[in-house]
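## Example record

The block below lists the input lines for one assembly entry, exactly as stored, with component labels intact.
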Amino acid sequence: MQTELSKKLGVEHAIFGFTPFPAVAAAISRAGGFGVLGAVRYTAPDDLKRDLDWIEAHVDGRPYGLDVVMPAKKVEGVTEADVEAMIPEGHRQFVKDTLAKYGVPELAEGEAAGWRITGWMEQVARTQLDVAFDYPIKLLANALGSPPADVVERAHDQGVLVAALAGSARHARKHQQAGIDIIVAQGYEAGGHTGDIASMVLTPEVVEAVAPLPVLAAGGIGSGPQVAAALTLGAQGVWLGSIWLTTTEADLHSPALTEKLLAAGSGDTVRSRALTGKPARQLRTEWTDAWDDPNGPGTLPMPLQGLLVAEAVSRIQKYEVEPLLGTPVGQIVGRMNSERSVQAVFDDLTRGFEQSVDRINRIAGRSGQ
Amino acid sequence: MQTELSKKLGVEHAIFGFTPFPAVAAAISRAGGFGVLGAVRYTAPDDLKRDLDWIEAHVDGRPYGLDVVMPAKKVEGVTEADVEAMIPEGHRQFVKDTLAKYGVPELAEGEAAGWRITGWMEQVARTQLDVAFDYPIKLLANALGSPPADVVERAHDQGVLVAALAGSARHARKHQQAGIDIIVAQGYEAGGHTGDIASMVLTPEVVEAVAPLPVLAAGGIGSGPQVAAALTLGAQGVWLGSIWLTTTEADLHSPALTEKLLAAGSGDTVRSRALTGKPARQLRTEWTDAWDDPNGPGTLPMPLQGLLVAEAVSRIQKYEVEPLLGTPVGQIVGRMNSERSVQAVFDDLTRGFEQSVDRINRIAGRSGQ
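Predicted structure tokens for the full assembly:
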């Protein structure tokens, strides 16, 4: 499964796997794909260094990349405390009441709330980049708009390709103007932040909008036929995130969450502002229902919502409070029905791809194939 | 472009075209596809008879079908007047106020409001079927659940295949149990009534759920690569509706609406309950915005909403009140940028399909193809 882009990056298959887990990223690259480590949770540079060392030791020399969350716009002269002060008391009370209703325990004294997206992540992302550029990464992806011009330049100076996510042709063209090398077209069905346009429509639209720039299709892809369909639509590769969450190499730190993912159908996700204030697809839970309830207080805009719920989400995850327990995941969750190794997922993708090519050749009357 | 189903129906290409316009339906069949005439607007049997006669005279002996709107559940012992009485006065006032705000003129004295979906359409659909079964139709499709058992039986007795639309694997399995022959998997991106699951995920899920029943993919398809992608996902054909709305053979009776469709991008539709009370994708207009506004009265459930807005929609269409003027259409509207003949659209689909097969063969390293 070879495209111009996969050849350029030196991978066997044009399958890109985004994951927060170093073991998954390394396994994807070892299997012949391109593993991309999500760096957003690494607030301490040493933790990132440790995990990149681990990948280096386990990737068998195969190429891999890094995904950061770097806001396109800087927020100047405003502190996190200023923004905390903008959160209405009624919303804070709603969080307290909802957690109390479900008996969610408090974090331990001094225990920090987990990951949150804020407008202040550029500094954190820059420390991540200072670490990452010491490693032979081949791709730098950004999940929030185009990265700043100096970051794109630094990447290019080091021979690193830069990718950025887009949910519309307009966004994709903005990335192109910012010197981005690869557009990840993120369809409606994808997990995490996503727009309203489904992959079947978005992929070819973005391909045409930014040609000859290569496009990766993201959203709704977790089987060989879906890989083949995305490449048929003009993508030079596929970008898969959700499908790895239930691999044996993944470590969600929550058996209950893994169970929920394995049991969920394609209709069990929702595109909700509950997590960050921007629409992000995730498991539908009583937590997202509470935020999406027209009789509730509703969500706040980014970055307020993320600040508001950060501690609550950490508590729900730590104590595995089942009705509230969720995670960003795409509609492909309906296909994640057993824990498999990354290699097994990969074999399924490549075998299914070949069978789909057989199928379309039969339909096209090219029987010799 | 041949599948088992296209062979069974005797068509050259596995492309099914749904349209309310006889001239479009006939042109699709003449071009080598399978034209399906939407019958919902034919409240007078003679009108349907006239248009089927016209198709017979213009289809060059090619096969074609009919699409009806036949509710799965009958509403017994309730009259339309009973239901009219259930509409809150505040909602009626909201319709009046909104029309007044935009200066929408009244219909002429005695002029009837146009089409509306109600729970009472079974009788109308049955009179349509009484007419249609006198013609050599090869397919009967139903847009609202499985048709009643006796209708399925009557179709089968006459050698007519029965198709039904489904937005989830669960719905598709219900159709299968009802003896339906073909499932139309209607993705989120489709025009008209549609569920929440996008085609990339829905198509293979439905294919697997009802195998070996043939599945047609609907939603987001309007170009050759999209046809190829849908067939790659396991569909035995594609079902296209929106793309024909701006063909030269279509007759929307509204140049302003045609202009709006040609100008609209893929992000200019919305899945709204404004038209019927169930989520249906349509052009986003100030009319849908008014109904979807959290500060407005909100929509009523089907069939109340359809009854409530029927006259208003007719007035908006008749007088082409631009900010309110809309129509059901899918996200593929972003690709409908010029008026073309049905044959030109068809040539684009089949040529693009062949190019996409070439492309996927190159990616798969089957260079001899």
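The longest strand of chain A covers residues 161-166. Chain A touches chain B through 53 residues (CB under 8 Å).
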